[in-house]
Amino acid sequence: MSVVNGADTDARTESWADVPRMFRGEGTLPPPWQDLFGPLRRGLVDSLVVVGQFGQSIDARIATTSGDSRYINGAEGLAHLHRLRALVDAVLIGVGTANMDDPQLTVRRVAGPSPARVILDPRGRLPANARVLAADGIRRLVITGAGAATKFPPGVEVVRLPQSDGHIAPAAVLAALAERRLRRVLVEGGANTVSRFLEARCLDRLHVVIAPIIIGAGPSSMTLPPIARVEHALRAPMQAHVLGEELLIDCDLSAQRLPVAFPPHAARGQEGGGVANKSM
To answer: What is the pTM assigned to this prediction?
Structure first.
């Protein structure tokens, strides 16, 4: 078990400052960042690295029964989330989370670049004034169904994909992002979206940040189909990292991850190609 924070907070902050740049290059990251983020640098299955993340209580709740969820995690847990954002090409959330929380999805608590913001919106429910669509110089994409009615601000890239029963296949989402040079992807929420990527075997890692609270009732962090026997449960090697008063569980899902099939015209794009569609 590693300890991310210690008594010298300033030294820890300073040690992070160059990590986003080093992460995208070669060489070992300085401690403790290599143990935490080294596995996210290279994909083991294809050219993608996909990590799911959620924060929860000790009893695996992500909100109260009234829907209140700000903030279950403390300062160190939130800083970890922002560090993840600073290292990936894109952060993805479902439209339900976008509408309920109206998040910014930027890097604010640590040093590092903000990633492209991706909203999964199969039926075109995202309002044009959502904060994730703010024109702040960061790339913005909405992945929606082929027939969904959409009207977004200038510069928002609209990616239309086939849908079934109101859902777009996670593998199709990842292939579309990879075609647009977005290959390190953080699936940040909500629970249903992260669970769909997990069920579809489209996650390489899962980061679960556990806060030192017990809520008692409310939505759980995962919404997966039931299994009949424990022997059928998904087993994943994991490592634990102490984040202040919180605990990060880093689950390695690479053994069960399915490769993403890229469309023929995107074969060259796996090393840097693809042209984005834009809705002006």
So the answer is: 0.90
